[in-house]
Amino acid sequence: MDSLFDDTQPRTPDADDRLVAAYVEVGRTLDDLPYTDEFETLVALLGGENAVVRREVLHRLHNLRKAHKLPRLGRAAGSSIKVTADEESILVGLVTEQAGTLGQRDQLLYDPRFDTVTERFNARTGRSLSRHDVWRLIAKLAK
Q1: Residue 69 above 60 pLDDT?
Q2: Scanning 17, 68, 89, 131, which has the fewest C-beta atoms within 10 Å of its C-beta?
Q3: How far apart are CA 95 and CA 85, in angstroms?
Q4: What would the pLDDT profile of 4-55 be if each residue is shown by its tens digit?
Q5: Where are the domains of the chain?
C-alpha cells in the first residue's frame, strides 16, 4: 500500500472518522505521537505500513487539528527533556539545515533527513536521545 488516502477521490468523512477514532484509541497527543509504539499501532489500525503512509497520517492529523476536528487528548505521556541553550541552538541549526526553516519541521518526520538530524544532534551534544525525544524537543522549540 503506497497511500492510505486515495488522492484521486474526494476525501470522505468515513476516512477522517476512521483516522480520528484510531487516534483516540491510541490515546496519545499529536505532538507526542511520532516515533512511538502508539503511532505504529495507529498506522496498523488504518492498514498502513510504510513511511509514505506514516507521513500522510501525520499530515492529515495536523490538518484535522487545524480544522478543530481532532479531540484534545491531554498532555504528553512523558516528561520533557531538559537541554541547554547551546543544545537548542544546535538543534534549530540542524533542522534548518535539513528543512529550510523550523516552521517546515513536519516535512522531516519519517524521512531519512530526520534520522540525520537525530544522529548529528547526538554526535554534537554527546547525548543518546531517541528519535521521539528529538522530535519532542523540536516541537517544543517551534512553539
Answers
A1: yes
A2: 68
A3: 15
A4: 454 444 456 688 999 999 999 998 999 899 999 999 999 998 887 788 889 8
A5: 1-78, 85-142
| Of residues 87, 136, 93, 101, the one with CA closest to residue 117 | 93
Residues 120 and 106: their CA atoms lie apart, in Å, by: 18
* Cell 511520532 belongs to residue: 34
Nearest CA-CA partner of 71 in 21, 106, 11, 15: 21
- Sign, CA torsion 142/116/60/41: negative
Residue 2 has pLDDT above 50, yes or no: no
**CA separation, residue 81 to residues 4, 114, 130 (Å):** 33, 18, 11
Of all residues in the chain, the percent with pLDDT exceeding 90 is 68
Name the residue among 84, 72, 75, 74 with its Cα closest to residue 125.
84
Q: Which residue has the cell 484534545?
A: 72
